[in-house]
Amino acid sequence: MARSWHEVFKGVDESSGDAAGVTARTQEEEKKGFFGRLKAGMSKSRKSMQQHLSVVMFDRLDAELWENLEETLIFADCGVKSTVAIVDRMEKAAGEGEIRNREQFYSHLEQALVDMFADGDYQIDVSHKPSVILMVGVNGTGKTTTIGKIAWHLQREGKSVVMAAADTFRAAAIEQLSEWGERAGCPVIKQERGSDPAAVVYDAISAGRSRGTDVIIVDTAGRLHTQVNLMEELKKIRRVIGKQIPGAPHETLLTVDATTGQNGLTQARLFGDSVGVTGVVLTKLDGTAKGGIAVAISHELGLPIKLIGVGEQMEDLRPFDAGDFARALFED
């Protein structure tokens, strides 16, 4: 069953926030609600895979079947490496007599997808005080929106949050984060547009420490002017954070727009190599028929997917669960 937000945050007190008064039954109902939103949000991907697999004749486990499955997975943007691994596994299971009908086929396929996801820590570490979450990703991936939603959920769990508006290059980025700060009830540390992002981060950490804040979330640029290298700017920000709080940032989360498909995989590889990404937030899954990109990113790059976005509401940013993800792709 789906993970709750309380389970996702590492370092949240069991007796803190809204979770303190939530009964086991209410938590179970909340998890069911999470899965319902996930299933609804992934309807495009599910319908696409079902249409591609609808022509499969399960009474003949032959080359045509495996070619059809391969095409289905590639079309869903599962990636070549992941697709080959899944099809090979399915063929082996069939050869050993474990797949004889439609039900067994889908059961094995779901489990094969689940096993493609990296084994990394799915939790978001907020066990330090203050904990620093550095958010990175190209413009248009929903990074700033994701920050606002994470802050909102953290406050529900009893954690105080400060946001740093360190994307000082994009027009309206500071204003957008400020709006999310108001919605989430969190202060936003900012300077004028065009100011040094590292200076904003320095101010935010100083303010967070003086106020006894639990979590500091740092927004960053996704594209800079041609004379400034984005990755070098992000590395500078990381150095500033590390000098003020040794060991920080405690999380570096990369937002990837699921609708960009294989471009998202390229982005994840670039950011992962440059700034030490600890996990991925996959956004806009409700807007694509190619949700398999989650498999490609996690399997090929070894990055845990910690959160996924399946809609516009606060509750539509949700903890990732590989089993629920696979079920949502096939369950009617």
Please characterize this protein's 3D structure.
The protein is an alpha/beta fold. 50% of the residues lie in helices and 13% in strands. It is built from 13 helices and ten strands. Strands 5-4-6-3-7-8-9-10 form an eight-stranded mixed beta sheet, with helices on both faces. A two-stranded parallel sheet has the order 1-2. It is elongated.
Short description:
By secondary structure, the chain is an alpha/beta fold.
- Please report which band the strand proportion falls in: under 5%, 5-15%, 15-25%, 25-35%, 35-45% or over 45%: 5-15%
Calculate the mean pLDDT score and round it. Answer: 89
Ends: how far apart?
17 Å
- The neighbouring-strand order within the major sheet is 5-4-6-3-7-8-9-10
Write the layout of secondary structure elements.
Layout: H1 5-8, E1 9-10, H2 24-41, H3 43-53, H4 63-75, H5 80-95, H6 102-116, E2 124-125, E3 131-136, H7 143-156, E4 161-165, H8 173-184, E5 188-189, H9 197-211, E6 215-219, H10 230-244, E7 251-257, H11 262-275, E8 279-283, H12 293-301, E9 305-309, E10 317-319, H13 322-330
Parallel strand pairs: 1-2, 3-6, 3-7, 4-5, 4-6, 7-8, 8-9
Antiparallel strand pairs: 9-10
Could you name the key traits of this structure?
single chain; 332 residues; alpha/beta; 8-stranded mixed beta sheet; two-stranded parallel ribbon; 10 strands; 50% helix; 13% strand
